[in-house]
Amino acid sequence: MTFEYAPAPESRGIVDLKSSYGLFVNGEFVDGSGTSFKTISPATEEVLAEVAEASDADVDAAVKAARRAYTRVWSRMPGKERAKYLYRIARIIQERGRELAVLESLDNGKPIKESRDVDIPIVAAHFFYYAGWADKLEYAGFGNDPKPLGVAGQIIPWNFPLLMLAWKIAPALAAGNTVVLKPAETTPLTALLFAEICQQADLPPGVVNIVTGAGATGQALVEHPDVDKVAFTGSTAVGRMIAKTVAGTDKKVTLELGGKAANIVFDDAAVDQAVEGIVTGIFFNQGHVCCAGSRLLVQESIADELLERLKRRMATLRVGDPLDKNTDVGAINSREQLERIRELAGIGDQEGAERWSAPCELPDKGFWFPPTVFTGVSQAHRIAREEIFGPVLSVLTFRTPHEAVEKANNTPYGLSAGVWTEKGSRILWTANQLRAGVVWANTFNKFDPTSPFGGYKESGYGREGGRHGLEAYLKEGGLK
Amino acid sequence: MTTTVHPSAAGSTAFSDVTSSDASLRRFLHGLPGVDQVGCEARAAALGTRSIKTTAKDYAIDLAIRMVDLTTLEGQDTAGKVRALANKAMRPDPADPTCPPTAAVCVYPDMVPVAKATLGSSGVHVAAVATAFPSGRAALDIKLADTQDAVEAGADEIDMVIDRGAFLSGHYLQVFEEIVAVREACARKNGEDAHLKVIFETGELQTYDNVRRASWLAMMAGAHFIKTSTGKVQPAATLPVTLIMLEAVRDFREQTGQMVGVKPAGGIKTTKDAIKYLVMVNETCGPDWLDPDWFRFGASTLLNDLLMQRTKMRDGRYSGPDYFTLD
Questions:
Q1: Residues 65-104 in B contacting A (C-alpha not used; CB under 8 Å)
Q2: B38 and chain A in contact, CB less than 8 A
């Protein structure tokens, strides 16, 4: 007899799903004038709710509300008063943590253990952290009287819906800006629940506005003449379009885009922990992570042994129902993304790389892809160059530290990287050579509100998180 | 499991080069991959978040009961106490005949005859701590005599302690040879031998690197089981330490085909804790180790919590501690 874990589903009873959701403008839910769309659970394809689409006129109304709140209330409010709202929001997020986690897993497909133990706690931590800055901005290093920018238009992706909202809204509000935020069309629900939380916290109307919709809504927001700042997280292709759109305007921009991170394992690494780090690096959140360690660079002398250990470990990953507390890998967020992963994996096969997938039973309904590793990959393979944004790892080998760094940097991206070695001096040397915004040593995918995050090259510009993250929402002020 | 054998006596011949000198043994042990403390503890904590419910919990509780080495190791132990403990081991829940017995009772060597007489042919083993337990601070001949006494008195299993002083001063060969000698002292005249568990006292070895080295040292010397702690030193068993030892037995089997058991001991008090260990065994070594022959809990208070949870699973409610025996 073997130890079969019985199903341990988190109850979805805690979530009060409405059949339809409007836009959140000026502190109230209003109907959208676009064509409403459905958001589904990617694990079951069940329709969760009907969501309004914001038209150009709706976006304009939201920006106007944000402008009014900015000039009349929020920019005039002392920092210590703004902080109180942010602290209140942070506490409500903690109190309603389970509700937010369940809703996030339902709408996004990520395992409940991640939304519960990673996403939501870091969301709350971001609000707490930036609440602390609100009355201390003159000590942040941007002059002794830094000013907010005005109205921020923010567009976030579907991979960490509420976390990306927190990364955008918390620093913007702390610095005295008001926001119009557009969540991704496949994952709007936690942003709309956040809107309820803003009401619960008595946040002044118009400080936070949420407009739902797809690309056209986002474009209307980016193009709106009264938006002072555009913050975007998403694909490099869309990031490019945004950069073109705002070129020649006064709008400030931060872009957090794609990545193809190298996770470098040297032959003296703590091997069992390195295997864990590789797994966390690429299979966390189904690999839907811009900083995922999607290229494993392993020293040739230990490659065979490491891969054997990695496959053994991958075979223990539990793929399935996102709401089951024992699920390690959940559903792919959308059919479109699943097709993209399948297409790139197919190209890996065609180009002669060797595919191995963990033996696991995938559910009949919904969007699923098994944890997969490609070996025999070289820099010339497309799966070593293009972001797959799924649970697919490409394995390359190297012989010397110089070769490792050369291969790691040989990419148009530069968001993150990992280094695994027991030798401290090699960690420092390697980290200095790597052109990546974040370098993790003997760990991977660790996030903290105090730590700035952002990319080099085509991975974007600007930093989010930490003191650096305030810079994106402040202009330097002179003497008082 | 039938194809898998315990390590052979007098050390595994596969490692005869390694164990030929202090220098080569040190090179080997220090050449083992390092352990990253943060990563190891994070993995152990992550495994601890598994949610084990209903049928899985039923299975885990009965398995955990069958893995308990029910232990009394006190200066105040008497024949009466040991007899009571042995009875409890055979019938942990007198109200429920379907409740399985524990794996063994664990006592000091002088109590082996008492335990043996009570347990008879019940199948519950008698384990005896030997080699100047718990400190291990005695001459080798005394340790060997201690072991032989216990074996002759009928002990099925010997729980020895390593010489932590020798280990920490880098005298690995001395530790190795001592384990080999004790293993030889476990031999019975009829050609069988008592199974040897080697206790590291991980709370004194302190680092995970040391735990990994001690694990390989003991396995190469022919240990049937490797065991975390005496229970007399804090911290005793922890999940990360046990994880390192499970990885060691897993890797040792990959290299040699020989299986070695693991026994965390001390500080495991609740069903919840025990289940975390079983999850760790399952996901680190696989189902082959989910058997009392290959995994044990050294514990005393754990058993009653397992029994209470077992009863709750059946009745749907908790009964008070007075419904469970206090031996």
A1: none
A2: yes
